[in-house]
């Protein structure tokens, strides 16, 4: 465990009111925006086909190229095999690496990320490079501007595999073309409570978008938080993909706001408020609580704040709390491995303290 | 609704530390003791066989006899048909009348009870008279002393049906003989949590005792509160019945204390404390709560106090609260009929206020 300082650091891409032009703070509905590019070195086998030696050579090339990029000059570089499983889990909990990358212990998995965690590059995940920029609120254009700059800089040094007809080549055909995935992390409790979420998700599929869980692909939603992202990476340029996602996300914001208006109607209002206050009561007094249950209750407080209920918490700290109560965070913060029971007790304590402050 | 003042009055037989010789305050385990006698006028049909005229004449005779008894000189007298259904429900909630008597609207159901509610007489329930004395804590002997005195006084005036071989005659053969039922209202959360309660209840049956629900025979337990009473009224004198019940109740107190000791053991302690604090949190913040759920959580606080947990409530007010949050109480307190939703909201508010005070 060597990442305690990181665990204690606030997540910058959750901070509201960033100085970003296309950012619209919609009652915390859009928590963050993320753009990632999948890139591979030309004339090199993909990581899953490369042995450890080849993977380490890829890592060396990436690290050397990174040093020439201004935006990445202060970045941390980690070989994941040098980190223990709690450190790797922490990186996943902070959305710096994928679930798969956290458990990838063969070959030479690597990670480069800036001190503010907004820019990161997974090396030797499914592709040689998975680069991402995460920014607060609804701001995929801001994220894309930065990522595009990094992509251009690295391409000069690394020569990415590119086919004139198919675009950027990737290990999995679902990423070919732009290699781009753009997503927004959205808090949609209104649509969940009013049972409109299923219909919305069915609609997304028809416009080439998809809804994923809290930790991305193949993970389940927690606390009514979903990743809305493009499903198709081919046949559109990057700007169109971002524009199209932005339009749909704006529609979802409107739907969610409409659903929250319904929650304020007489018959539902008392039930919803009761529900939120009960979550507040449980979080204020529980002595032991599991991650999933905690996130569900915290999500309720987040909804309560947007409904202007009087709760002694701030939206910013609520968002941070969703991340810091995760298992690896707790263990990094206390500086030692904990049993499940100890984690549940530590989690409850951390939540109680953060509600008092 | 004319019993608002009664609804607002504290229940005297729940107050701890009464000046009673045989009372032992066992961490609130025994909430109250009750002795009742079933009596019938001789040469008169039982109430279920009597028409309205005959029932009213019984009521008149009882009321006239009552006036000659010192202990009852200030008693209230009610014909239940003059009360609306909320008033009658209030009397049941305060354990002054049975579930059956509350819904008895044919004939001439009546009630006589002292201002402190410790002595009451149901008239024209199943028997002509059902007299009871309720006292706080473990004190059936105190209750019996008072009730015996009243029984003697009334017998002089009313001449109760008595058979030299079978004893006092009653409408149902399960009450024949002494006509006596003695019971203790016991809070047994320890035995419930440790799953020992079933075995205890099976044992009770073998020694001629029985466990009943919160409102007595045919009602279900609420908040781990049970009425432990004698099942047999025949073949023993009153003192033996009381002695035998007292012995068993003292054993149950020991079992319950033993169970609570188990709850303080490492593995269970955190779970139990978490559970109690969650109840505290829910009661502190809920905006709507049903009677059963509320009593379950209040019961947890009562347990918490006995486990020396820091909770901003007093045992006395906890016991009172279990009674005042009942539906008729709430409506009498606010002075008007409420819908189920309104009751749930009023109940939650009353609980929140009583936890703050």
Mean model confidence by pLDDT of chain A: 92
Assembly level: homodimer
CATH architecture of the largest domain in chain A: 2-Layer Sandwich
What's the number of structural domains of chain A?
2
Q: Please give the CATH class of the largest domain in chain A.
A: Alpha Beta
Largest interface: A-B, 19 and 19 residues
- Unreliable parts of chain A: 18-24
- Count of distinct strands of chain A: 10
CATH topology of the largest domain in chain A: Creatine Kinase, Chain A, domain 2
The global form of chain A is globular
Major sheet summary line of chain A: 8 strands, antiparallel
- Radius of gyration of CA atoms of chain A, rounded to a whole number: 21 Å
Helix % of chain A is: 40-55%
* Fourth-level CATH superfamily of the largest domain in chain A: Glutamine synthetase/guanido kinase, catalytic domain
Strand and helix order of chain A: HEHEHHEEEHEEEHHEEHHHHHH
How many helices of chain A? 13
Strand content of chain A: 5-15%
Q: Structural class of the helix and strand makeup of chain A?
A: alpha+beta
How are the strands of the biggest sheet of chain A laid out side by side? 2-3-4-5-1-8-10-9
Task: Please give the alpha-carbon distance between the first and last residues of chain A.
Answer: 28 Å
Give structural notes.
The structure is a homodimer of 357-residue chains. By secondary structure, chain A is of the alpha+beta class. Chain A has 2 domains: 4-260, Creatine Kinase, Chain A, domain 2 (2-Layer Sandwich), CATH 3.30.590.10; 267-356, no CATH class. In chain A, 46% of the residues lie in helices and 15% in strands. Chain A has 13 helices and 10 strands. An 8-stranded antiparallel β-sheet of chain A has the order 2-3-4-5-1-8-10-9. Chain A has a two-stranded antiparallel ribbon with strand order 6-7. In chain A, a hairpin with a 5-residue loop joins strand 4 (119-123) and strand 5 (129-136). In chain A, helix 9 (266-285) crosses helix 10 (291-306). Chain A binds chain B through residues 270-271, 273-274, 277-278, 280-289, 341, 345, 348, and chain B through 270-271, 273-274, 277-278, 280-289, 341, 345, 348.
């Amino acid at each position: 465990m060597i990442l305690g300082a990181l665990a204690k650091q606030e997540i910058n891409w959750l901070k509201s009111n960033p100085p970003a032009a296309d950012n619209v703070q919609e009652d915390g509905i859009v928590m963050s925006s993320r753009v990632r590019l999948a890139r591979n070195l030309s004339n090199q086998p993909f990581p899953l086909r490369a042995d450890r030696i080849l993977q380490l050579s890829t890592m060396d090339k990436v690290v050397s190229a990174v040093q020439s990029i201004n935006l990445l000059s202060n970045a941390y570089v980690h070989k994941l095999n040098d980190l223990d499983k709690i450190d790797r889990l922490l990186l996943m909990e902070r959305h710096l690496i994928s679930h798969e990358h956290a458990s990838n212990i063969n070959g030479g998995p690597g990670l480069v990320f800036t001190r503010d965690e907004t820019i990161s590059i997974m090396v030797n995940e499914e592709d040689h490079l998975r680069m991402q920029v995460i920014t607060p609120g609804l701001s995929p254009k801001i994220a894309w501007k930065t990522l595009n700059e990094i992509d251009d800089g690295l391409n000069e040094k690394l020569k990415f595999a590119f086919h004139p007809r198919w675009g950027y080549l990737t290990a999995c055909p679902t990423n070919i073309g732009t290699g781009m995935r753009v997503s927004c992390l959205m808090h949609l409790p209104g649509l969940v409570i009013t049972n409109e979420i299923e219909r919305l998700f069915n609609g997304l599929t028809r416009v080439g978008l998809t809804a994923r869980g809290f930790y991305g692909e193949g993970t389940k939603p927690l606390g009514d938080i979903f990743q809305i992202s493009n499903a198709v990476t081919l046949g559109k340029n990057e700007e169109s993909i971002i524009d199209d996602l932005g339009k749909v996300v704006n529609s979802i914001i409107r739907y969610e706001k409409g659903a929250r208006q319904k929650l304020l109607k007489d018959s539902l209002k008392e039930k919803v408020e009761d529900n939120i206050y009960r979550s507040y009561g449980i979080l204020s007094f529980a002595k032991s609580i599991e991650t999933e249950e905690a996130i569900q209750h915290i999500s309720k407080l987040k909804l309560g704040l947007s409904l202007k209920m009087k709760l002694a918490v701030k939206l910013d700290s609520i968002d941070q709390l969703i991340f810091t109560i995760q298992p690896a965070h707790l263990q990094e913060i206390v500086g030692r491995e904990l049993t499940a029971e100890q984690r549940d007790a530590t989690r409850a304590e951390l939540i109680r303290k953060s509600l008092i402050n």
